[in-house]
Design a protein that fits this description.
globular, Rossmann fold, 4-stranded antiparallel beta sheet, 25% strand, alpha/beta, 8-stranded mixed beta sheet
Amino acid sequence: MKTENAEILLRVENLVKYFPIKRGIIIQKTVGAVHAVDGVSFNIHKGETLGLVGESGCGKSTTGRTILQLYRPTSGHVFYNDVDLTSIKGEDLRVMRRKMQMIFQDPYASLNPRMTVGEIIGEPLVIHKLADRKQTQERVEHLLELVGLNAKFYNRFPHEFSGGQRQRIGVARALALNPDLIVCDEPISALDVSIQAQVVNLLEDLQKEFNLTYLFIAHDLSMVRHISDRVAVMYLGVIMELTGRTELYNNPLHPYSQALLSAVPIPDPVVEEKRRRTILKGDVPSPVNPPSGCRFRTRCPIAVDICAQSKPEFREINPGHFVACHLV
């Protein structure tokens, strides 16, 4: 695994992000909060891909955006190369952002339709004043070829491209400033299945060439297994399990991880027929009023009294295998 003997690039400690709920037209009053991310902790090593998986609305994308300080956290710390991003702002944060970029989920909404491809990819260089006009054009043309597009597309507009090509433009834009860390926010979920593999292979090739570090957010467990070194399973703003990809898929310890993995189809009809599915009862609770104790207890098939009374500690069960469950 890439994590062995590799230095830690990103350290997230007890990260919390609440969105206030306000009522009133003239005088707005805070009446509650959406508990989007609630005490998340993990490390990402240099050159590694950490997969972050879970159901829609569990806080994956909010975690990624809060790490990059696109959302300022309610509490907690994010250390990038031992610099606490939560304690800096203004020009200091702007300089740090050169090393951290994001590939957005929707390639149709994340590209400005009024800008050409050259302007979109070159914009980070212009904002950070790192290149003149000629140097920017040369860099953009090089990046287009790097992601498998023609350098002659420089003056075209986003509407002239397919979804897969648009996502490649998004990847090129993320690479413009030579970052070390890229947060991939479900970069393939809006694409056709045939195109998904091409984009994932591109990301893997770029990682090898430039020693990139990825936080890969997704809900497609089979794709996460393919690209990730370690996987974190998230539910209702909390990480339930974190371990290496092989360990997670062969030996999931948390009941939620077991339920998620039981839903992944296996391309062998004999094995698929014998396999037991774990069907979760009920709906995901509201993040405005999450359950006491363990977040998963209202749907957990093995929940007992202590699950409602106290929050389970996120502890190391085996070397490198962390689980938040009283019964494991």
